[in-house]
Amino acid sequence: MPGILLIVGAGVVSAFQVGKASAALAAVQADFALDLATASWLLSAFAVVGAVAGIAIGVSVDHAGARRMAVGGLLLQGLCSGAGAFAAGAMPLLATRVLEGVGFLAVTVAAPALILAATSPRERGRALAVWGTFMPAGLTLVMLGAPLLDAVGWRGFWLANAALLVGYAALLARGTRSIPPGAVPQRGIADDVRETLTAGGPWLLGSLFATFAAAFFAVFAFLPSILADRLAVSPETAGVLTAAVVAASALGNLACGRLLARGVRPVFILLAGFGIMVPCGIGILGDVLPGAAAYALCIVFSAVGGLIPVTLIEAASRHAPRPDLVGATVGFLMQGNNVGMVLGPAMAGAIAAASGWPAVALLVVALGVAGGLLALALRALPAERLAERQAGSGILTSTMVEDPRSPDRAARSAPRHQGETSR
Questions:
Q1: How far apart are CA 202 and CA 347, in angstroms?
Q2: How many other C-beta atoms are found inside a 10 Å radius of the C-beta of residue 188?
Q3: Which of 133, 131, 85, 80 is nearest to 104 (CA)?
Q4: Rounded CA separation 56/203 (Å)
Q5: Residues 6+ apart with CB under 8 A from 174
Q6: Can you spell out the DSSP letters for 385-398?
Q7: pLDDT of 197-239, one tens digit each?
Q8: 366 CB contacts (<8 Å, ≥6 apart)?
Q9: What is d(CA 61, CA 108) in angstroms, rounded to the nearest whole number?
Q10: CB 226 within 8 A of CB 357
Q11: Distance of alpha carbon 357 from the chain centroid
């Protein structure tokens, strides 16, 4: 478990780079005299990079190795954060943010593959659940770092993050040396991209992640403003309350690990997650419930939402076109996540401007229904049906197993991808 926590820590310090832009947005605006529309690109740069480059980074993880990509991603973020501290204007700063986004994506795609390589099948559900906490943990901690931002300014904050990232890269490189490197695919990158894009599993998983992220961020992108209005509190207080809500999603991540370890079928977790998010979204965005009740639903919405990413990442090894394309499949998942992060707030903002926040609840309902239908479609895939039969018959409690009668079992037992290396 210490090794898993070390890998999770790489995600946490990477998540700092997402949250630092939000924390320092006002200071950057004042320094460069930016309007809000221009400054918002500093926030969305990571999502845009992920929406475009997810599968490319995933295939690179398969070919270059997860450990190398994770360490390289940390170093790239560190170097770009350091360069951004000396930016003379908005465009150079934005350029460093785009490159930081590439490094962030490299870490978040490579880390699950490292975890798969470092754990046995029975441990993977819980290990991936711990990994799933990296984003809420990172965002919450960086929000709590506001006093440091006030003391050193946004440029000093960027430099502090640069030092942290470079130092952590050295720590990760040293601490993961014992993880087997796995086999490098012999096919070309273009062939691997093509095979991933023509398989049904990655598309369903990516679509599920996009649907979830769109629903989640349709609410959370505007939550500080919503809470300030519903609870009649200051923006500062609304920010603290939002941080608490974000932290609640980590509870869902950890709970999902326990559910998977106990053999609960992924489709049931997905249906429960989307099914509970829908009424919560209605209560949060509607104008019927009192503010305190709406805030309680925010916590439930966040915690239940935390079930979905862990379930989808855990399913990636089953639905990869080949065992050595797990990285590409996780990359496609992250691409779907980032598409949802871009589209969800954009759609919610447009609907709210035209018809008010209660109308955004209809968007959440539509996305929740779509997520449920996609989950049922995922269940129909052969890998899920096999896992359900094995779980039901008591062959194995882990859902990440292979049928011993499968005709391609011999091929799968050959030298494998980092995420599937024999223990």
A1: 25
A2: 11
A3: 80
A4: 15
A5: none
A6: HHHHHHHHHTS-S-
A7: 777 888 999 999 999 999 998 888 788 888 888 888 887 788 7
A8: none
A9: 11
A10: yes
A11: 26
CB-based contacts of 49: which residues, under 8 Å, 6+ apart? 98, 101, 102, 104, 105, 338
Taking CA atoms, 198 is separated from 125, 302, 339, in Å, by 27, 33, 19
CA distance 199 to 78: 35
CA 130 → CA 106, 115, 218, 252, distances in Å? Answer: 19, 10, 25, 10
Orientation of helix 189-197 relative to helix 326-355, angle to 10°: 50
Using CA atoms, how far apart are residues 349 and 223, in angstroms rounded to an integer?
12
Helix (H) or strand (E) holding 266: helix 266-285
Q: Which residues contact 30 (CB under 8 A, 6 or more apart)?
A: none
- The mean pLDDT value for 91-114 works out to 91
Residue with tokens 């096919």, as numbered in its chain: 187
Question: Which tens digit of pLDDT belongs to each residue from 339-356?
Answer: 998 888 889 888 988 898
Distance CA 249, CA 255 (A): 10
d(CA 237, CA 312): 33
Closest-CA residue to 422 (of 399, 402, 403): 402
